[in-house]
């Protein structure tokens, strides 16, 4: 459950109430942009993202980490998503932003996609998540 302006630290505090109260089988982690914009140290963002993934897995959820490797995120900040997903055995979803960020037809402002942009992201994301959702369905039946 995203909240505009939230950092990874804010999201970490909200996990119990906003996420685990719904007993999800799959959690999608798409966070960190506000950390970058606020110049929060990368080490703090890494700790928070890693904790979010770990805690979600401890609660029994499968986790998908969405990478942000666009524009200014092509530095070490952009790399941490894949590194955390790999270290935690989570699904890493990449390239869903490709062709969206910076495209005025798909953006509502300089940072956020519009409805068409989010629709395209969702379509790309659905392809990536299909295997994870199937595995979750099987786990739910056992």
TrEMBL record:
Residues 1-120 form the SGNH hydrolase-type esterase domain. Transmembrane segments: none annotated. Gene3D superfamilies: SGNH hydrolase. GO terms for molecular function: phosphatidylcholine lysophospholipase activity. This is SGNH hydrolase-type esterase domain-containing protein. It comes from marine sediment metagenome.
